[in-house]
Amino acid sequence: MRTTTFTNHQAVDSPGIILDWRGLSWLLLLGAALRLAVIFLPPDAMFEHGRNVVIEELQRGNAAWDLRRGPILPLYDYQLNHFWGGSALYSWLAIPVLAVLGDTLPVLRLLTIVFSLLSIACIHQLMVRSEGLLGARIGAGLVAFAPPGYVLTSCYAYGTHMESNAMSMALVCMWIWWRRLPEGDGWASLIFGFFVGVCAWFGYGLWLTIGVLAVLDGASLLARPRRIAWIKVAGGFMVGFAPWVAFMLAHPSTAMHVYDRPAWAYFDTAEWLDGLGSKLSSMVTEDAPAAMWFHPAFGSAGR
Description:
Low-confidence stretches: 1-8, 296-303
Largest sheet: 2 strands, parallel
Radius of gyration: 21 Å
Mean pLDDT: 81
Shape: globular
Distance between the termini: 46 Å
Helix content: 55-70%
């Protein structure tokens, strides 16, 4: 894969990874240090549930513990539900971490740092192409040092929330990389298709990102030179999406349901508009102020 290094503040058009060793390394290091502090501070002083583990984290930890000692369920049944495959992926990835560092909640949460660092790196790569080095550092810095509420939430071992943000940004980065490759890209299309399939299984929310990218790149489907690449993408997709297919074969009645309703029921025009209005209102009056929450552990209280 081609890489590019530079020191100016100009946007760079490159098919490969654009390296900003100094700026990005510091952002990743400091972003990781901040999250380590949050994870290892006394839970009663930091997390809203204190020592009472939220049910999602309990499920991720129990699944990883069970998988390590010999699963008693099919692998796909360790995910929270059919539309959040990321919950199972988190448990699978946590197995070696827990095996080496011990079966504790802070260790389980360490994996969240990987997803946070992925978000920081992807934002940097996306912005450096359009905004240049300074803009990329500012954008990535806003993720590394996000409001306390966002940082705190990113340290919960959900496997479904902030992790989806990271996967979405990584998908966009991979799409940019893939579409700029020359013809005859070998395994690149298979790898890209596999990652798209994993994202589609990871969470239904990522289908929106996949759909937008498909629309943006849809014209290339008609271009004869790109058809072979798209066939490879489709093949890789089926491999990455296989866990979802396996789950559906075992639980066919839930395929297009989200919680207790069909997915399309959420797009009822009147209900959707009403929900959008109430959500925007709560974002302004509740969520945004709550995101600026400072705990006394930081030396400040209130919102």
